[in-house]
Structure formats: C-alpha cells, structure tokens
Design goal:
The chain has five helices and two strands. It is mainly alpha-helical and 160 residues long. The termini are far apart.
Amino acid sequence: MDDKVLRDQLLALLRGGNAHMSFDDVVANFPLEQINTRPPNVSYSFWHLLEHIRIAQRDILDFTRNLNYIPLKWPDDYWPRPGEEADPVRWNQTINDFRADLKAVEAIVLDPNTDFFADLPHASGYTILREVLLVADHNAYHIGEFAILRQAAGTWPIES
C-alpha cells in the first residue's frame, strides 16, 4: 500500500500552518521579559504553557517508542510547579527540546517501516497513528491557546 498521502498529511498536521499556527510562528519574537508572566485570569505563565506542551509531546513520544514506558502522574508531572520560573536559557531549552521531539515524531512518520495501524507491542489498542494524531491535536490546541493568551497579554509585536 502506498501511504505517501497519509504521511504527507500527518506531517502537515504536525507542523501546523493549515488550520492553525505553527509552533515557531507562535513563539516568534516573544518578549523574554514576559516569559514568567501569567496572562489575565490564567494560573500559569507563558513558559509553564510551553513546558507543558513539551512535556506532553515527550511523554507521547516515549510511550510510542519505549517498551518499558512508565506513565507520568497526571497532572503533576505534566506541568512545572506553580512557582517555578524560567530564565531565557531555560525558555530556549524548552523551545529547542520541543523542536527536537517534534522532529523525532516526524521521523517516525517518515520511516517507511512505520506501520500506522498495528498495535504498539506494549499497548494493545494503541497505534502509532493514534499517537501521532494525539501529538498533533494536543500541540494544536495549546499552540492556539498560546496565541490567544499572547493577544490578551499584548505580547505580539506591534505592526507598523
């Protein structure tokens, strides 16, 4: 079966740009002095949200690849501690780690040996297709949230 169309569509969904912004677009030109700011009526900071997206994506990737996967505890392990803050180095590390893990998910999609429909060896009823769609869905949801919170907090660059 030629599954090039499926692979292309999954990559487009993971990368954004069709129905939602890409990760790179939403974090571009973010003011570093605002990374620990909590947007209006939100209990977490901009960095907390990015770190949550990164952690969840890494967890799904780990679940997909690791036969000895150990689940994270919800919600504690999926978010930084409420008072935890990032400096610009940590902010950039979160972004770079997210990008690296997304590339790893893309590599699974691009691998011609990937069987999207077979059960994961360690998780009956779970497929690579399901996990790739879960990554794309979760990322798109929170990338959109990040964009809206940027709007509410006035952190988009002023257009001239």
